[in-house]
Amino acid sequence: MEPIITINNLIDDAKCYQVVRMLRWPDGQVICPLCESTQIDKHGHHNTEPKRQRYFCNSCTTYFDDLSSTIFAGRHQPLQNWILCLYFMGLNLSNLQIAHELDLNEDDIQQMATQLREGINDKKPTPKLEGSVESDEIYIVAGHKGNPEAVRNKGRKGRRNRLKGARGRGTLAKEKPPILGLIQRGGDIALKMLENVKQKTIEPIIRTTIAPGTLIYTDEYDIFGRLTEWGYQHKTVCHSKGEFARDEDGDGFCEVHVNTIEGFWSLLRSWLRPHRGISQEKLPLYLGFFEFVHNVRRRGKALLGSLLNLILN
Question: Is the pTM higher than 0.85?
Fold first, then answer.
């Protein structure tokens, strides 16, 4: 059970480092990040951060400290700011809001938030879905904000106004990338930004994420037409004919539907709404972060413990 971290633990340097030590070494036994030895001696404190404990490994004769081999090592911002930034990210504040809350430069917060999202994406577990799974796709407008070279390569000037996507289905090249969603009923979600909506694009994702033989529910879109060839059971609803749910076994419960994933899309759009103008280069980081937040099923102070535990371990 991960501890609930209160805001009072984040406004004191000593408590911040105590939280890090508690999450890195929950049984109190410090472990060398290089050789994983437990033959460790304390070796004073950091020169510029007196609450940051230093250690010496007797096995590999390495010096390290509370933050060594973590995403927080070697940063110019104090640990307190990093943890508070992560806390506000869990509350889904925009980078501008976080900068105001912490009284920091927005560019610094942009860089910190990006590095934290990258850390979450690198370490989050890959969902493995089984049982009853629903699959669907949506399209999110995402240009090349903050990437002038990509804009020049498209042969146009940068936009001053909000990017507006073309009607209908989009692709990465059209700056309206598809997002594939796979959700296990009563379980986890897997999100993936696609280059396009083709069978050869989604096949490796589905094979990696969904256990063979799983029953997959989709709409009538033809990219899902080969699921049975790939080793899955497949049932569809035809939205174009006004069908949104169907009872096949006569028990009065309409089990054939994609309403779970359709409802999830509303949650995703609400989560992305405060973050205006997400570029397609950064969009996978936002998707991966929300995927973890959804799957861990924690919010607020409880979520911060899960985020820190993932980054530190």
Answer: yes
